[in-house]
Structure formats: C-alpha cells, structure tokens
Amino acid sequence: MTVREAAAALGAEIVQGEFEDAPLSGAYTSDLLSDVMANAKEGGALITIQAHKNTVAVATLVNITAILVCNSRPLPEDMLEAAKNEGIAVLLTKENQFTVSGKLYGLLRKEQCPS
Q1: CATH code at 88?
Q2: Domain count across the chain
Q3: Residue 97, Cα to own-chain centre: how many angstroms?
Q4: Which residues constitute the domain of residue 79?
Q5: Given 3-state DSSP classes, what are the helix, strand and coil percentages for the chain, each rounded to the nearest 5?
Q6: With contact defined as beta carbons under 8 Å apart, do 3 and 89 qualify?
Q7: Rounded distance, CA 85 to CA 113, Å?
Q8: DSSP H helical segments within 1-115, as ranges?
Q9: pLDDT at 111
Q10: Pairing of strands 27-29, 66-69
Q11: Per-residue confidence (pLDDT) for residue 82, from 0 to 100
Q12: Could you tell me which residues are beta bridge partners of residue 66?
C-alpha cells in the first residue's frame, strides 16, 4: 500500500504532496521524538500529534516515508516546507493516534496476509 493509497483509505488529507509515492513498510506511533529515533523503521509512517519542524528532522534521520498528524493539529509552514525539501509526505487527520494506528495496522496486515 502506497502513501497515497493509505491516505485515501484513512480519509486523511495530504497536506504536503511533493513526495515519492512509495509503499509503506509499516508504521510507528509516538509523540516522543527520541523514541521515534530509537524505534521507528525505515520506509514506514510516523503517527503523531507532534506538528513542528523537529518532527521532520527526526523523520529524515530514520528515513520515514510519511508523517500522519492526528487530532487536526495545526501544521506550521516551516514544518511543511521542511517536509517538502526532504520529500516526506505530511498527512492530516481528525482522528486520534489510537484509531489511526489501528486502522493502518489493519490495512497493512490485510495487504500482507490476504484471506
């Protein structure tokens, strides 16, 4: 499932759309950026409420493909500009991290293990 397919399936808005529409390898949910640096996997999505430029810096270090910002958090322009410069998708959803994590897990699991 690509980033754009995931966004559509989740009903998330693509706010920063200049990125390679690569397949997602998984996701990691955290609001503690040091935790993301230590545990997130390359090629995945970051599910968070942290809407600032440092989130993009951490995503770049880990080679995160997309950042899903939850709870309709306002997205500052410097965050979106940094994501654009790094080619990282930024998605926005009104749902919370628990709901988005569960939905994305189900979507990715279904794709990996079709019945």
Answers
A1: 3.40.1390.20
A2: 1
A3: 11
A4: 3-112
A5: 45, 20, 35
A6: yes
A7: 35
A8: 3-10, 33-39, 53-62, 77-86, 97-112
A9: 73
A10: unpaired
A11: 98
A12: 45, 89
Please tell me the predicted confidence (pLDDT) of residue 110.
83
Q: How far is CA 9 from CA 37, 81, 89, 103, in A?
A: 27, 25, 15, 9
pLDDT at 57: 97
What CA–CA distances, in Å, run from 104 to 12, 38, 74?
11, 21, 22
Residues of the chain with pLDDT under 70: 112-115
Distances (CA, A) of 27 to 48, 60, 76, 77, 78: 11, 15, 23, 24, 24
- Kindly report whether the global pTM for this prediction surpasses the value 0.85: yes
pLDDT tens-digit series, residues 80-96: 999 999 999 999 999 99
